[in-house]
Amino acid sequence: MTGSTVPASRVPSLATGAKAGAERGRRGGSASQREPGQFLFSPWHLVLIPIAIAMLVPMVWMLATSLETLNETRHFPPIILPHTLRPANYSDVLTQAPFARWFVNTMIVTVVTVAGNLLFCSLAGYAFARIKFFGREVVFVLILATLMIPFQVVMIPTFIIVKDLGMINTLYALIVPNLAGAFGIFLLRQFFRTLPVELEEAARIDGASRLSVLFKIVLPLSGPALATLAVITFLWTWNDFLWPLITIYTPNNMTLQLGLATFEGTHQTSFNLLMAANVMSMLPVLLLFFLAQRYFIRGIATSGLKG
Amino acid sequence: MAEVAFENVSKEFPGGTFAVDDLTLSIGDGEFLILVGPSGCGKTTALRLIAGLEKPTAGTIRIGAEAVNGVSPRDRDIAMVFQNYALYPHMTVQKNLAFGLRERRTPRRETDRRVREISAILSLDELLKRRPAQLSGGQRQRVAMGRALVREPKVFLLDEPLSNLDAKLRVQMRAELKRLHRRLGITTVYVTHDQVEAMTLADRIVVMSGGKALQIGAPQEVFSRPANLFVAGFIGSPAMNLLRGRAAPAPDGIWETKITAGQLCFERAGVPGGEVVVGIRPESLVPGGAELTGPSLDLEIELVEPLGELALVHGTVAGTAARSGAEEEEAILLDETSRAPVTALFSASLQPRSGDRVQVGVDPARIYLFDAATGEAIRP
Amino acid sequence: MTAASAAASRKRGRRIRRILQSDHLSGWAFAFPAVFLIFVFGIVPLIWSALLSFQQTNLISPPHWIGLANFRALSHDQLFRQSVAHSLVYTALFVPISVAGGLFTAIALNRKIRGVRFYRTAVFVPVILSTIATAIMFLWLLDPNFGLVNFLLGEIGLGPYGFFDSATGALYSIVGMTVWGWLGFDVIVYLAALQGIPPTLVEAAEIDGARTWGMFRNITLPLLGPATLFLVVWSSINALQLFDEVYFLTKGGPGTATYVVVYYLYSLAFNQGVAGYAAAIAYVLLVAILSLTLVQLWVGKRLVYYAS
Question: Cβ A134–C24 below 8 Å, yes or no?
Fold first, then answer.
């Protein structure tokens, strides 16, 4: 499914603080007990362990397969732990397909899109938050409205526009339409409004221009919101499939997701190579996730707690 | 209705702090007991121990002579009013009141009857169909109490229920609470940091600090016979004046020991020699001139706060101040000379003014003495 | 005040007024890049799409107007009807399963037990994987010949199943796969909402006598209302837009078993050169999504309590 993002509001704290929710008084305690230490084994583990297994098994299986030889993949019953490790699968992927190009393409598109969003959405978000200008309310509502529109409705005309601008089959087609998104504007506007306006007023009286106030006062205080936007935009751009599918057709210009799809087409039965390719495609996002978990979760949770 | 007892109860938190330290206390059936003390003294924890929201790390808690240590809150037949009321925001007042009864499978007719009864007692009839968000602070507080009382619990627990109300409402609700208790007679345990509330509402109060009960007794007794320095400094508003002093044998006087504290000088029997702290309540300092017999002080007035009939006078006397441990913040030293800050209550008709020098006398029988090292009261 | 400081403050006053006067200019200057981009690539295409639905174009040669012909054709289109049915079936399965599953899992994860952070991470990770990456994993996992799932099912005497190759099972396999991929999203939202329930409320309910089920039904679930509404709306919107997995795994097959609206749309515009017709379908989809959202929000308003 392609995801269209939804407005965000205040950022909640997800620290594991107070417990709430259904009671689990099997140990005679109440929901608010703060027992020293943690339960070593609780009945809930019986629920969590199968769920965790179900979540992790596909990835573990993929990883194992990525290191198997072709014959091992065809072995029945399936081999869980490969006898012979074949890391050459990974280099094979790189030689049998322009995988490195795909990676670089995707990285370029993603980084530029993230940078663009951070810049343009900061500017616009700040304007909507703090500057009273003609038509502000109307334009903001229009922008919000675009969040509700599924991509498929606009994709055909957007394709035509991009084609008429001569950007088809180039990375520009992937970057330009997504350089600024309504989600980012909304997220940052809401965040900026929570900052004390007195700081900005003091700076302006001191002589700073609006631009200076934004870059020297407001943005430095907006770390979490910017990080959240960056991480969410990164994820969305890296994983995008439909738009690259319809705008790029030359293998060398493809992004990772698109390339993977075509790779599967040509290497349908080489599951070991396919899995190796898959693993490699996931690494940047997984890395980012483990480094910036907090911001991923915040970004998702904020969309969920809007009024 | 039931008695409540703490038997050597302690609650230790990881890290070694004792929120409640070896507390032994028995609360009589139908009694209104108030736990009072500064924030962090353990009073709320003690209340939550009765409720079963915390489990003691040592000792036994009894409700109605039964040990309830392992019993969950819902089975203890207690009811509680939280500081922020904790009303179910998505239910109407009526459903809020009925919730506990419905959860206990009380038949519909009985539930309705009891809800109507409580609603009448607490004047909630017009509010029954509203949601908590549509109520004022005072109304929410009454609903919270109603929800607790409708279950006719054995013990009624209140955690600072009046602290979120504005001053006028607070005074009103205090009287309501007292009336309610007299009418229903449920054993009530009430927590507050406001000693005025404690004094006006309680049958007995427990002054707590650092997890320990420093004194247990009827309000008047705790006020006039504080057991130690902390209680003396905590109970009574404005706070008791405290001066450092020495007790020394006075072989040629009427009583054996002569106590000096700055300018103050008097004699008393049965006081061991050594460092002492002298305590005088502001209302015990009587201004006067030559007609003063007995111990007196020269008070230099710095600041006068008019209180209508009375005036609160802040000034200094010769001597060194002592601390009770019950002070809210670091006392601001008025100046560095060897003078101690003192407050007194004068009649406003005397028109005290800043800068005046007044002689104040005190009845020696109304002077409190405490051991400077232990803080314990020294009583003849 | 001296004469010099009076002059300085007057100058400041002028300066402040000057700053304030150019607000419209600076406001637009700041907002322009983003607004322009959204206008060109969001608003304009939206309107254009409406126009396109009344045209016929193959995206290469100039379009020509055909009035309501596209919409009339829609009402006879068998494949369209099938696509709609499949999309609805998918949505009707995906939304309840993932939302309820997310709630259950969030409750399980909302406690201080050993290793809870590990379990939470395990549940979150699938959310960040791309649709293609997930599809590739499951393509292999559910392989009819060598996949792990068929092997395990065989061990307990079931299967083997064709999964994506089976006309009856393909759609359900996609349901299972996408639930796997999105469960973590629901968990994140629900976890945040659960942790937003004031603990004193739970304590009060406990003292009032609520037992496990009573607590859940009367306290937890109602207070999770807003989160549930959001997830239902959000999941429905996304479910109706199902595409990537269908394109990659089944291309709408076997036969037309997994034809969903967006896949049909795509195929019409970019494989068959019938972009006007596709635009018409896209608009029908838009109307459907908006209507569904409005209905859900309306229902939500009546059932969901919002804490003030």
Answer: yes
